[in-house]
Amino acid sequence: MSTLSERLKLAIQKAGVSKSDLAKACGVKPASVSDWLSGKSKSMRAPIAQKAAEFLNVSLIWLSTGEGTPESGSNVSPARLKLKKVPLITFTQAGFLTDNGQLRDPSICIDQGDYILVDEDMPDGTLGVVVEGDSMEPEFHEGDIIVIDPSLSPQPGDFVIAKRICPYSDSVESTFKKYRPKQYDENGNLEYDLIPLNPDYPSLNSKRDKLSITGILVEHRRKFRRR
Fold first, then answer.
1. In whole angstroms, what is the distance from residue 45 CA to residue 48 CA?
2. What is the distance in angstroms between the CA of the first residue and the CA of the last residue of the chain?
3. Integer CA distances (angstroms), 97 to 92, 114, 149, 179, 209, in order
4. Which of 49, 109, 117, 159 could bridge 83 with an S-S bond, Cβ 3.0-4.6 Å?
5. pLDDT single digits (tens) 118-137
């Protein structure tokens, strides 16, 4: 099978799962799965392909390239997928990103071993951030890793990292929330809310809380308890 679409359709059929099941397992939106199946997207990023292969119980190499057979035994050889290191930071460190969402010296994190691997075609400036707290449960749990692209502009429903001025100390802190645009103010600036998924937490407002968006979620890596 020469296309990702063909291979994915076969794997989904054999696994007996739905498109929404696959989207949830890969940490992507259902629209992304639809794009793979229709042929609009002809490839997957390496970490997402790994999740899809594991969920569908097929070979990573076969799913990604068409080489070999669908049997999952060949998943041990992902060398053909090109990966690169990006910094892995905490929410506290995310509060010190520049206005365009960049770390001032990302090589320090990587040299210290604080990094994750992402697909090589992810843009420069991509970051991994460790989720803290429970304001985004049940979708995101403390200890999960979110991959942030600072080069994107937010769209309604996106999950974003933003900087805000702490009302208690005037220090800069970071927050991770769902983006909801509202209206343009008298100066032509778009006002927006940042919404927690946990109803026990309040929403933030760009005008009231002096928010500045520094990156958009593009991947979600969840940790599961070892048994």
1. 5
2. 37
3. 10, 16, 13, 19, 18
4. 117
5. 888 888 889 999 999 999 99
Residue 153: CB partners within 8 Å, gap ≥ 6?
216
- Beta bridge partners of residue 74, listed in sequence order: none
What is d(CA 103, CA 93) in angstroms, rounded to the nearest whole number? 9
CA angle 203-204-206, nearest 5°? 145
Q: What is the pLDDT of residues 47-93, one digit of tens each?
A: 888 889 889 988 888 888 888 888 865 444 444 457 788 999 987 78
Q: What percent of the chain has pLDDT over 70?
A: 90
Cα–Cα distance, 99 to 172 (Å, whole number): 12
Q: Global pTM?
A: 0.62
Residue type at position 85 = K
Separate counts of helices (H) and strands (E) for the chain? 7, 9
CA–CA distance, 108 with 87 (Å, rounded to integer) = 8
Q: By CB neighbour count within 10 A (0-12 exposed, 13-18 middle, 19+ buried), where does 56 fall?
A: buried
Question: Are the beta carbons of 116 and 85 closer than 8 angstroms?
Answer: yes
Identity (one letter) of the amino acid at 219?
E
* DSSP letters spanning 136-183: TTTTS-TT-EEEEETTSPP-TT-EEEEEEE-TTT--EEEEEEEEEEEE
d(CA 175, CA 194): 9
- Per the structure block, which two tokens stand in for 5? 């679409």
